[in-house]
Amino acid sequence: DNDREHVNGIIFQRIIKIFTNLQYLNLCPSSIWYSRISLKAFTANLASTTLSELHVTVNNFDDCLCLLDGRFNQLHTLYVYVADIQSSRQTINNMENLPNLKYFSLYSNVVTRAYDELIVPLLNRMFNLEELSLY
Fold it and tell me: pLDDT-derived band of residue 107, with 50, 70 and 90 as boundaries?
């Protein structure tokens, strides 16, 4: 449901803005279908310099890339559940290396044909990874 994803995105933004010293955030309840976040509503100035671990379910791979575009540059652990991994026309700044990221888990229960195009370039930016899980 797009409205629910939008509302979840707004809640995520408010949490980040209100809790300025937040280091750990887990937004993954048991059912990923009801907790997905759409980052389309994100404002450009939404960022956190303290968040180091994030567990989140996003609507699509573009949303995942938004999380890794420099706004959350202190992330060392990211567990992301992606509902849909497909190529898109949206341009996202996703070329910067991610030197702080040590633990990365990417889960999707939908088959993708865009693995080489989307996932491999993302993984190449994570040169200090210590733990990787791909599901």
Answer: very high
Strand partners, 77: 53, 103
Rounded alpha-carbon distances, angstroms, from residue 120 to 67, 82, 110, 125? 17, 15, 17, 9
User: What gap in Å lies between CA 106 and CA 99, rounded to an integer?
Assistant: 18
Q: Are 123 and 96 in contact (CB under 8 A)?
A: no
Q: What is the pLDDT of residues 25-45, one digit of tens each?
A: 998 765 545 577 877 666 677
Structurally, how many domains does the chain consist of? 1
| Domain boundaries, position 17 | 2-134
Structure tokens given for 53:
């671990």
Q: What is the pLDDT of residues 67-78, one digit of tens each?
A: 898 889 999 999
CB 76 within 8 A of CB 98: no
Q: Determine the residue type at 41.
A: A
